[in-house]
Amino acid sequence: MKRCKIVSLPTRSTAIEFFSGIGLARAGMKKAGIDVIWANDIDEAKCALYSAQWGVSDLTCKNVFDVDPDTVPTADIAWASSPCTDLSLAGKRDGLVNGSESSAFFGFVSVIDGMGDRKPQALVLENVCGLASSHDGADFRMVVEAFNRLGYSVDALELNARRWVPQSRPRMFVVGLLNPIDGGELDSSLRPDKMSWIHSDESLNTHVTPLPNPPRLRVSGFTKMADELPNDDSRWWNEDRTLKFIESLSEVQRQRFEKLVEGRTVVARTAYRRTRNGNPVWELRDDDIAGCLRTARGGSSKQAVAFLGNGAARVRWMTGSEYAKLQGAGDFKLEGFRESQIQYAFGDAVAVPAVSWLMKNAVLPAIDAQPQKAVFCEAV
């Protein structure tokens, strides 16, 4: 004789991922207990890196405007790291409507709209903080209104990856929920004025998510994380190139450089190439934190790494491995890809731990995931 009973099993929430890049949002959601069941991107190079990490069974590599909503599976969450090219302070700021790349946001909205009653319980848009000020806030309003038309209440946060990894990388996250949890505080550290104004606009449907304090901003960690290359590695710059690097430093930068060289401990410092008064110069960070990773399409967007101390200075470009570690993805599979491919893909991505924190605290509490039922029997 058997005695049986029905028990509820915990269920992992599911997500669909737009503008997936190489899947760092997926990695962050996985750490938060969320399974990505479908992904989309248009960039073949990023799709190749995504496939190497996650496989190709759930990846649709095509223009978002060509995605048929009927082919997109039902899920609890939709994530979108839409192109930031036309919103970034470093670009021409053509905006959402006129921008040739950032206008892809409307393709995402169209797919969600086309899903009808199957639309996810939550939408998350990740982008540069420049979205908040683009066209004097008009583009940000456009995003909120688009989410509202789809039936979602909106909250907006700013999170810096520096809270988890030694990289200064502030990013904006717009969270839309069908069943929001309200009652949080408008903490300026997470919701600066350029974002929090939406909560005082009665024409918009918004909520303020109750959130715990995130980790404090890190002040060190890059030296420990930096790759240790052999002295004979070809990636080290030769003497002439290193000398040109030093000669381009301003007086203030030179003093910083020399002080670190004279130190008894070798430290790693990142540097960007800037144009000052029409001349290309190098500027060295004064802390043990990397600057914000960028899409490495040109020399000015790449960071150099200077190892200084014990009377010596060695300089090289930042490696693809360091790009991955600075995004919280040091375990990603990079074999078989060129350094330029890795730098391009990781420089245009979101930090893994920022995604995990956001999902655990601002999204999952409002998701009504239905537990699975199972029957267990035992002999009596």
UniProtKB/TrEMBL annotation:
The keyword S-adenosyl-L-methionine applies. PROSITE patterns: SAM_MT_C5. It is an enzyme of class 2 (transferase). GO terms for biological process: DNA restriction-modification system; methylation. It comes from the Bacteria. InterPro entries: C5-MTase, C5_MeTfrase, SAM-dependent_MTases_sf. Gene3D superfamilies: Vaccinia Virus protein VP39. The active site is at C84. Keywords: Methyltransferase, Restriction system, S-adenosyl-L-methionine, Transferase. Its EC number is 2.1.1.37. GO terms for molecular function: DNA (cytosine-5-)-methyltransferase activity. Pfam families: DNA_methylase (PF00145). Belongs to the class I-like SAM-binding methyltransferase superfamily. C5-methyltransferase family. This is DNA (cytosine-5-)-methyltransferase. It comes from Gordonibacter massiliensis. The lineage of its organism: Bacteria, Bacillati, Actinomycetota, Coriobacteriia, Eggerthellales.
